[in-house]
Design goal:
By secondary structure, this protein is an alpha/beta fold. Helices cover 32% and strands 28% of the residues. Strands 10-11-12-13-14 form a 5-stranded mixed sheet, sandwiched between helices. Helix 1 crosses helix 2 and helix 2 packs across helix 3.
């Protein structure tokens, strides 16, 4: 039984069970199957043998789930797009993906209304299931192809590790469907007969409504970026009284600060906190670890864990060889979760994907280091800048800043003039602020950081914030911070 068949089976076992809640809209498993079947039939009738991708444009509406399954049942991959994306980026993605059709929520409503029997294609293990576009270094989006086999391997690992309660979980959906973190909550929920509870961007913009929605959500499994959880913790009542049913926090997409875990453990003492790591090209997450009190006590920066069963993670130096024990190297991922490559871009695919001992492998472009048989993520390899002749890794400065007392999170960016780096600027969120001025606090941090780093790596300026701005995906918005320089 493949993933689609497993989801459809939920409609037979519990047709009235709620599959998705978004605002005042909901979708049952029975409706999900009936409407996705109808959509598949109409797509097959309209497009015939054309197997080009189909784009789905919306914002967490139940129709998007209908479209995802309906498109796949018709034998085509879907391309999720969020209405928050700039129109120019949407146009670029549509052109790059050479889509056969763009479905809006109104299109989906119309095409899924028919109750005629569906001519559903068999979904092959190696067939493309979805294509998610990520930012490219050239500014042009890259479409990552994820097959049914990739997705099933990831979901299988998650289900085995987390032991989700069948027909008994409510998953938080914080990330838009155009961001691959949403794959974790969406398909873990559907595979177990759970309820997906979506948080719209309107709720995020209205904190009172957000916390009211969370209090009424019944969420048992929290899936988000660390930044979103940090934002929620600004509210003092964000604790196990607001979310009494939460069993676990699953984080991915960003570095998880120690301070965030400490605060969560105090507010949700019965919930487990998990840190995961993985790029879109390796289907959401490849490593994981439960962050308990012992881990927090032992490490000043948190590990991202060990590779999931059936996958392998190793480090490689610039010559393609393993670095010396304890030294950092580029993180490489192999296994059935690794994407076949970038849609329509064999040049980019060749540069990042390769065969390793008969398995598909992906070079992440991320620095990593092994300690105590655990993987530690140490930033992007392309975050290296040159200042006064010295090469500096921004992630190195950030990591050491986060290790200082009372620093909850830190972002370090270069201040440029005429294209040249003039100095470093540290944006800092403190967990505790005393009565000291920003000037005095900056001097204290610079002195403490100077005990860890050479003088040329010390930021010239410190900017203190209550929280970092976030992108639509729920990640820290470095671009907005850069604009303030």
């Amino acid at each position: 039984m493949n993933l689609i068949e497993r989801i459809d089976r939920r409609a037979r076992v519990a047709p009235q069970a709620i599959a998705h809640i978004s605002g005042d809209k909901s979708l049952t498993y029975g409706e999900l199957r009936t409407r996705s079947d109808a959509l598949a039939a109409n797509l097959t009738e309209r497009l015939g043998n054309d197997r080009a991708p189909i784009a789905v444009l919306g914002h967490r509406e139940p129709e998007m789930l209908v479209a995802f399954l309906g498109v796949v049942k018709s034998g085509r991959p879907y391309v999720p797009l969020d209405t928050a994306l700039p129109q120019q980026r949407i146009d670029n993605i549509l052109a790059t993906a050479s889509v056969a059709l763009l479905l809006t929520t109104s299109d989906i409503q119309e095409l899924s209304a028919s109750r005629s029997p569906a001519a559903i294609s068999c979904v092959e293990h190696a067939a493309a299931f979805y294509i998610i576009f990520t930012s490219g270094s050239t500014g042009e989006p890259k479409g990552v192809v994820v097959t049914l086999g990739c997705l099933e391997h990831f979901i299988g690992c998650m289900l085995a590790e987390q032991n989700f309660a069948e027909l008994g979980e409510t998953f938080l959906n914080q990330a838009p469907f155009s961001f691959d973190l949403s794959v974790m909550d969406l398909y873990c929920s559907l595979a177990t007969g759970g309820t997906l509870f979506s948080i719209s961007r309107d709720l995020v913009a209205a904190p009172k409504l957000l916390y009211r929605a969370l209090a009424n959500s019944g969420v048992t499994t929290w899936v988000s970026t660390p930044s979103f959880a940090q934002m929620c913790m600004v509210e003092r009542t964000f604790d196990d009284k607001m979310l009494p049913d939460v069993r676990r926090f699953l984080f991915c997409g960003e570095t998880l600060p120690v301070e965030t875990v400490v605060r969560l453990q105090k507010r949700f003492p019965r919930a487990r906190v998990w840190n995961t790591y993985g790029p879109t090209e390796a289907t959401v997450a490849t490593t994981s670890i439960q962050i308990d009190a012992a881990i927090v006590e032992k490490y000043s920066s948190l590990p991202v864990g060990k590779s999931m069963p059936g996958t392998r993670v190793f480090l490689m130096d610039e010559n393609g060889q393993p670095p010396p024990m304890g030294e950092r190297g580029e993180i490489v991922i192999t296994g059935p979760n690794v994407s076949p490559g970038y849609f329509g871009r064999p040049d980019l695919t060749t540069g990042a994907f390769f065969d390793h001992r008969g398995e598909r492998a992906y070079r992440t472009g991320d620095w990593g280091r092994w300690r105590d048989d655990l993987l530690f993520f140490e930033g992007r390899m392309d975050e290296q800048i040159k200042l006064n002749g010295y090469r500096i890794e921004l992630g190195d400065v950030e990591t050491n800043l986060r290790r200082l007392p009372h620093v909850r999170d830190a972002i370090v960016l270069p201040a440029r003039k005429n294209g040249d780096v003039q100095s470093l600027v540290a944006f800092v969120v403190m967990s505790v602020r005393d009565e000291s001025s920003d000037f005095s606090s900056a001097n204290t941090l610079r002195k403490q950081l100077g005990e860890r780093l050479p003088a040329y790596m010390l930021p010239r300026k410190f900017v203190f914030l209550n929280n970092f701005p976030m992108t639509a995906n729920g990640k820290t918005d470095r671009s907005r911070l850069s604009e303030s320089l």
